[in-house]
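Pilot study result, target chain (60 residues):
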Amino acid sequence: MKYALGLDYGTNLVRSLTVDCSNGNELATYVFPCPSGHQDILTDKQSCDLFGGAQQTDMS
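Predicted structure:
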């Protein structure tokens, strides 16, 4: 039996889908909420490049 696995990486979650290739039946789905996102905004206190991260200093 052959299976196909589909993954969709979004801002706040990852979705997965497993399908039986012989008949197209959906065998399993799962949604995993990402801890680094909230309301379509990536957040990381360690990164200057993401909302909520360390403040950048103007060096000019």
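One observation from the pilot: The CA atoms of residues 14 and 32 lie 5 Å apart. A full batch analysis is planned for the follow-on phase.
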